[in-house]
Amino acid sequence: MANTSTAPATSAAPAGTGPKADTTAGTGTKGPGRPPRRERQGAAWVFLSPWVLGASVLTLLPMAVSLYLSFTDYNLFDPPSWIGLRNYVQMFTEDPRLLRSIGNTLLYVLVAVPLQLALALAVALALKSMRRGRNFYRSAFYAPSLLGASMSIALVWRAIFNDGGTVDNLMSGLGFHIGGWVNQPGWALVSVALLTVWQFGAPMVIFLAGLQQIPQDLYEAAAVDGAGRWRQFASITLPMLSPVLFFNLVLQTIQAFQVFTPAFAVSGGRGGPADSTLFYTLYLYERGFTASHMGYASAMAWMLLLAIGIVTAVLFRTSRSWVFYANEEAG
After folding, report:
1. What's the CATH code of the domain at 274?
2. Does pTM surpass 0.90?
3. pLDDT tens-digit map of 235-248
């Protein structure tokens, strides 16, 4: 009689359905060779740690200390003493020079920023139509943005607009005897604003990049319909360029509120003549480092941050009515 044996049913299990199929269970991986999620997060934090450490030590910690000092009376030498909101109350009730610095700063922003953006857009339009030498002129016009923020350029600017300087001699030759602009209360702020306008290279490059993204067929269709250059500029260029214009407007406005070096160099650090160039940041520097009222200066710094935040929020709010995005759907 033949000896027959029956194999266990489990031995006939299909390939890949045994215990080996669950070897990746609980590891959190979704494919072979991919590290677990916790390991990936740990690696990300390792690479982010220099930035996190720098932001914490160089930005967040100084901001926290400045916020604390704004509620204290601190003269850089003695320990700070808590005085509550006295610095903030004094700013608007007992300090007329602060109000003057606010007025000068607002006037500077309203004059310098529109002129700078208008010149940057005009030069960008001229460069767009050029076929030869565009790269050279773009670099040449961008150079002042790299050099203009330095103290050396500000001192040269002061010499140009000083009594007997280049501008004074040129104006005298034309029959206008104004004298040194930096010595005249009505012209000193204008000279500082012109230095900012001269640094139009950065917004110009951004405008040029935006102009190159506008489809050329829009201008061709407008020309077929009989639209002239001004009509094309108002109906095509400005609407299509409005996001770039908005970006430059926000960026340059924030920078203008923080202007310091030109005013310091032109006025010799005093905000003169007759406080005509006493900008907010210059007065903040004077109260903090010249008069040693660091608690008061810290309060001024936080008010400047609040003012910039409010102005930026207003710009974003009003942008809904004039900024056009090409990917927006009608309705």
Report:
1. 1.10.3720.10
2. no
3. 899 999 999 999 99
